[in-house]
Amino acid sequence: MKILKFGGTSVGTPESIRKVIEIVRAAAADESCVVVVSAFTKVTDKLIDVCEASALGGDYQASLQELERRHVEAVSELISFADQSSLVAEVKASCNELADILRGLSLLGELTPRARDLVMSFGERLSATVIAAALKGGGLPATLLDARECIKTDSQYGHAQVLFAETVSLVRRYFHERRSVTVVTGFIASTIDGHTTTLGRGGSDYTASILGAALDASAIEIWTDVDGVMTADPRIVPQARRIRKTTYEETMELSYFGAKVIYYPTIIPAREHHIPLVIKNTFNPDALGTNIGDEPSSDHSPVTAITSVAPIVLLQIKGVGLIGTKGMARRVFGALADATINVILISQASSEYSICIAIAAHEKDHALATLASEFELEIIQKRIDPICAENESAIIAVVGARMRETPGTVGRVFSAVGSRKINVRAIAQGSSELNISFVVSESDKEEAIRAIHDEFFV
Ligand code: ASP
Ligand code: MG
User: Fold this and answer.
1) Is the CB of 123 under 6 A from ligand 1?
2) What is the pTM of this model?
3) Which atom from ligand 1 is nearest to the alpha carbon of 200?
């Protein structure tokens, strides 16, 4: 059994859905396939817009009609004339149900996270209905499964947590009878008492991995619109190359640091069950893609890829009061956590004179106010300096599982950056040695990435 997941751009138009049908046909010749689909391109964004508009009393009719039109059009292009009318009726019935919900929201004038999840679920429900019918029309024996029947979560609407024990047993029960092709809605799930939930934006990847793990699949293929994971963002480094092979851990670091290849929770079930994750391009299916597994690549470079997060700001908490005083770090991180501010990077030298942390730039004022109030007394007593934030900066992350066995990598990274006269403001390296991260001014970001790429890949 193999899982194939097709993202929004792969199911954006009738032409791309035709490509999907051919890819599934080739895969289904060898083994049973579970086809996980996202909503059509941008549909989830549109659904969020319409539910927000309706709750604010705004006009959403035009967008709703546009949504219906896109799906009806896909049906008329992809499905044979004889089967069209029943499917169009099905699409219209879903859109009417959605219209009723939106009318309810506009009467109430409020939008709860639970209602928003219900509205978003229509994207995947509609796309899976159309794609299952298109596969059938193409001669494949496809059945449709609404993931809400099998994937169970808690009730954190918008980013629900999967209840694995319940889910695995429901999935296995459903797939007990072997089916050659099953089309499953990505992204959506439900609580034990049947309310619709979603797994976080981009969550269809995660659906694929949950099913892959539950079914002990031979592979989980993520079909997207790029050839695979790249050594750097090709818009910054034109010579960036596709990575043929990488590890779960490296991919986790890369997707956390802004390389938008895969929704990072996806990696957890796949890694636990040692199921290969393969990134493939729907628009270039012959390209080998990127294989993600347990083994690092045996290529010569100790660095696998370079990525970045920006804009961030660096906060400096410094002063004599930090030296040798226990519990200061706890207060810094505790105060930020209570204010729900996410810390992206931490660095503290052993002099203990200062703690330096990176946060997203838009949280700067909130973080400064939080820390100023936490340390108000120490600041008055001059034991801690007023907290300061540097100008907008970027974190560069250099990722590679083989760095730990290659002495000198850190030196090469910093001499490459130094030779371009780029100033490094803070450095952090985890003891896993999988990732060297450092902070530069945002205006130096691209040059720093190119410098390191030239050093390791040219
Ligand atoms: N349709 C959802 C989204 O846009 C899930 C996905 O595409 O993976 O976030
Ligand atoms: Mg996506």
Assistant:
1) yes
2) 0.88
3) 9
